[in-house]
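Please fill in the sequence for the structure shown.

STRUCTURE ENCODING:
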C-alpha cells in the first residue's frame, strides 16, 4: 500500500518536529520523561517514535508482541511496566472486565476528535472510556497466484491436501479456531462446546498439512516464496504484495474477521501523562498518514482518510464496500476461554 506521497509526509513531519511539547501534535502538557510502548510486530512506522521524542522530549521504549494472547499473559504476569498497549477489540473488553486497563483523560488527547465517529463508543468499550482506535482491518488469505491451481475464495484452501507442506497457519487460538468455525458455518463467537470441538477436529486434520504455525514470520515466508498460502491481516498482505508481485489476497466466501486495534493504558502504568501525549501524537495527521502508509492498515483518522488516493480507497482490500459475512470477535465467557486453552494445548501434543 505504498502509494501515498511519503516524501510530503516526511517533510511535514520534519517541520512539525520543531514544535515544542504542549502543542496539539506534541501531546498536551506532558513533562519530559519516558513512555513504554508495547505493540504488535510489523505494525508501526517506528521512525515516529523518534519524531515524538523530538517534539516532546519524552523517550520511547518500544517492544512488540505477536498476538493478543501474549499481550494478555504479559500483563497478567506483571507487565504493568508498559504505559501504552494496542490490543484488539475483544481483548479490550476482557481487559476492562478484569480491571487490567484504566480510564483515559481525554483532555490530554484532543486529537480524539479526529477519530471516525463510526468507531467511537464501540461494543467493546461502549462509553469510550478506555480506548482510542489505532487502526482497523480485516483478515483473508494471502497466496502465491503463480503456484495455486484453483480459485482461492474459501477457507477450505488452507485445508487442501494438494498444498501439503506449503500452508502457513495462525499461531494463536482465537484466529485459528475462528477460521475453522467459519469454514464449518459457525460464528466466531460461539460458546457451544460441540461446535468448538468440531473446529478442533478440523484443525487436527489440517495439522499435518501445515508447514508452520506462525505470526510475524508469515511476512518473510510469503515474500520469499517459502509457502503458498497463509491467513493474514489485510494491511500486512498489501505490504507483502508490494514486495512480491506474485502474491494476491482474497476474502473467503464463508466470512471473515473485521477488527479494531486501539490504544489503551494498563492499570499501574507509571507514565500515564506521557502515554496520553503519545496517543495524542499518533492520532494527529502527519504521524497518522505516515503510519498508515508504512503498515498498510485502514485508518480511523478522518483527515488521513480524506487525503488518501482514490485508488487506495477503492482497492477492495483496504476499505471493502461489501462486508456481508464479516464478523467481529467478542469477549467470551471464562469457561469458553478455558476450553480454548485446553484444546489449543491438545492440538500441539
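FILLED IN BY: designer on duty
SEQUENCE:
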Amino acid at each position: 500500500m505504498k502509494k501515498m506521497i511519503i516524501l510530503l509526509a516526511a517533510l511535514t513531519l520534519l517541520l512539525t518536529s520543531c514544535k515544542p511539547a504542549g502543542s496539539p501534535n506534541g501531546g498536551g502538557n506532558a513533562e519530559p520523561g519516558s513512555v513504554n510502548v508495547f505493540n504488535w510486530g510489523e505494525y508501526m512506522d517506528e521512525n515516529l517514535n523518534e519524531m515524538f521524542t523530538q517534539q516532546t522530549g519524552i523517550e520511547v521504549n518500544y517492544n512488540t508482541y505477536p498476538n493478543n494472547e501474549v499481550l494478555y499473559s504479559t500483563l497478567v504476569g506483571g507487565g504493568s511496566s508498559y504505559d501504552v498497549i494496542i490490543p484488539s477489540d475483544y481483548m479490550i473488553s476482557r481487559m476492562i472486565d478484569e480491571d487490567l486497563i484504566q480510564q483515559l483523560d481525554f483532555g490530554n488527547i484532543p486529537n480524539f476528535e479526529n477519530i471516525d465517529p463510526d468507531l467511537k463508543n464501540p461494543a467493546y468499550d461502549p462509553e469510550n472510556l478506555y480506548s482510542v482506535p489505532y487502526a482497523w482491518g480485516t483478515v483473508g488469505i494471502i497466496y502465491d497466484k503463480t503456484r495455486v491451481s484453483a480459485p482461492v475464495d474459501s477457507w477450505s484452501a488452507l485445508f487442501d491436501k494438494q498444498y501439503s507442506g506449503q500452508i502457513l497457519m495462525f499461531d494463536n487460538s482465537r484466529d485459528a479456531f475462528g477460521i475453522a468455525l467459519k469454514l464449518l458455518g459457525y460464528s466466531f463467537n460461539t460458546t457451544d462446546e460441540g461446535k468448538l470441538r468440531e473446529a478442533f477436529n478440523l484443525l487436527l486434520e489440517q495439522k499435518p498439512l501445515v508447514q508452520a504455525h506462525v505470526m510475524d514470520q508469515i511476512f518473510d515466508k510469503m515474500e520469499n516464496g517459502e509457502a503458498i498460502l497463509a491467513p493474514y491481516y489485510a494491511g500486512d498482505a498489501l505490504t507483502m504484495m508490494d514486495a512480491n508481485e506474485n502474491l494476491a489476497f482474497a476474502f473467503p466466501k464463508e466470512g471473515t474477521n473485521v477488527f479494531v486495534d486501539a490504544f489503551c493504558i494498563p492499570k499501574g502504568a507509571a507514565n500515564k501523562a506521557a502515554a496520553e501525549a503519545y496517543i495524542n501524537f499518533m492520532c494527529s495527521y502527519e504521524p497518522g498518514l505516515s503510519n498508515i502508509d508504512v503498515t498498510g492498515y485502514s485508518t480511523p483518522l478522518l483527515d488521513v482518510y480524506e487525503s488518501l488516493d482514490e485508488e487506495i480507497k477503492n482497492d477492495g482490500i483496504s476499505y471493502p464496500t461489501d462486508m456481508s459475512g464479516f464478523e467481529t470477535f467478542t469477549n467470551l465467557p471464562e469457561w469458553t476461554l478455558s476450553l480454548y486453552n485446553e484444546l489449543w494445548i491438545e492440538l500441539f501434543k
